[in-house]
Every structure is written in C-alpha cells, then in structure tokens.
C-alpha cells in the first residue's frame, strides 16, 4: 500500500503577491515550485506544523487565516500527498533560503510562469480566480 503523506503549505501574501518557493535538488520533486511548508508531525495541528516549518525553513513568522484555503490529493510514485493550504500574511522576517533554491513574489496571474509540483496545480488555479487582499 502506498504511503499517505499529510502536508501543509502556506500561501504567503505581501502587497498582493504570493511567495513561491523552488524546491532544492536531490530530493522528491526537485526543482519544482511549491508553497513553503512540509509534513505534519505527530501530535501537531496543521496550524502548528505550518508555523514550525516556516520558522525552520524560511526564518519568518506569519499571521494566518486558520481556515483551509484548499485541499488537494495527488498520487506520486512515492505515495499520496494530502496537501492543505492556508492563506498567511508575512508578520516578521524576510524569507531566507535554507533549503529552497530561490523564491519569487508573484501575482496570481503570474503563477503560471512556474513549473509547480503537480499536487499544487488545482490550488494555483483557485488562486487565479480569488481576490487576494491585504490582511
Ligand atoms: N512543502 C510542500 N510540499 C509539497 C507541496 N506540494 C507537494 O506535492 N509537496 C510534497 C513534496 C514532499 O513529497 C511532501 C512534503 O515534504 P517536504 O520534504 O517538503 O517536507 P519536510 O521538510 O517535512 O520533509 P523532510 O524533507 O524532512 O522529509 O509534499 C507544497 O506545495 N509544499
């Protein structure tokens, strides 16, 4: 049976742009673009997992809408990824590259210029038809 992998991702908004992160080489989905975040650990809520991942991998803190923006499920060769995304607003810090290759701030209409991880594509489509405002 394939693994179930529960993942949280952050749609971080600043000046009506969204933070897009390119995965590093030598790991699953290398070089594809994603919403920053990661796997939910045991005894952690999704919100806690996301705040932890953002502190660890981008050195930022965010305020977030604690209501799911989107949920997608995608079958990769290594397992099923269940991806829950949340809208977040940058509160402090500038994103630092600790494991990503690069980051870009793009408007919803510009998101298509990147090659996204397959699980993210329905969420990217949804963002293109969503009014993203300020906090
Ligand atoms: N973080 C993140 N992962 C995503 C997205 N879309 C998508 O398919 N994934 C996949 C890639 C990975 O297989 C899995 C998340 O694992 P990860 O490697 O980013 O998370 P992690 O830091 O907790 O894991 P690890 O490397 O420590 O094992 O979900 C996304 O938008 N954001």
Present as ligands are: 8-OXO-2'-deoxyguanosine-5'-triphosphate
User: Helical content, roughly?
Assistant: 10-25%
Say which CATH homologous superfamily is assigned: Nucleoside Triphosphate Pyrophosphohydrolase
CATH topology: Nucleoside Triphosphate Pyrophosphohydrolase
Strand content: 35-45%
Short structural summary:
Its cofactor is Mg(2+). The protein is of the alpha+beta class and 135 residues long. The protein has a single domain (4-128), classed as Nucleoside Triphosphate Pyrophosphohydrolase (Alpha-Beta Complex).
Structure notes:
- There is one protein chain.
- The chain is α+β, with helices and mostly antiparallel strands and 135 residues long.
- The model has no long low-confidence stretch (mean pLDDT 96).
- Strand 6 and strand 7 (79-92) form a beta hairpin.
- The longest helix has 13 residues, at 46-58.
- The chain is globular and about 45 Å long.
- It contains two helices and eight strands, in the order ββββαββββα.
- Strands 1, 2, 3, 4, 5, 6, 7 and 8 form an eight-stranded mixed sheet that branches.
- The protein has a single domain (4-128), classed as Nucleoside Triphosphate Pyrophosphohydrolase (Alpha-Beta Complex), CATH 3.90.79.
- The chain starts with a strand and ends in a 7-residue tail after the last helix.
- It has helices at residues 46-58, 121-128, and strands at 4-14, 17-22, 33-34, 37-39, 61-64, 70-76, 79-92, 102-106.
- 8-OXO-2'-deoxyguanosine-5'-triphosphate binds next to strand 1, strand 4 and strand 7.
């Amino acid at each position: 049976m394939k693994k179930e992998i529960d993942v949280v991702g952050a749609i971080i908004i600043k000046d009506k742009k969204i933070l897009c992160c390119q995965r590093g080489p030598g790991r699953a989905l290398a070089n594809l673009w994603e919403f920053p975040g990661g796997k939910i650990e045991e005894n952690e809520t999704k919100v806690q997992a996301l705040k932890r991942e953002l502190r660890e991998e981008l050195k930022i803190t965010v305020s977030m809408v604690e209501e799911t923006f989107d949920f997608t499920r995608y079958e990769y060769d290594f397992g099923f990824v269940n991806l829950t995304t949340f809208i977040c607003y940058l509160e402090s810090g500038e994103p630092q590259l600790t494991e990503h290759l690069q980051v870009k701030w793009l408007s919803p209409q510009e998101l298509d210029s990147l090659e996204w991880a397959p699980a993210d594509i329905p969420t990217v489509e949804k963002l293109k038809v969503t009014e993203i405002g300020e906090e």
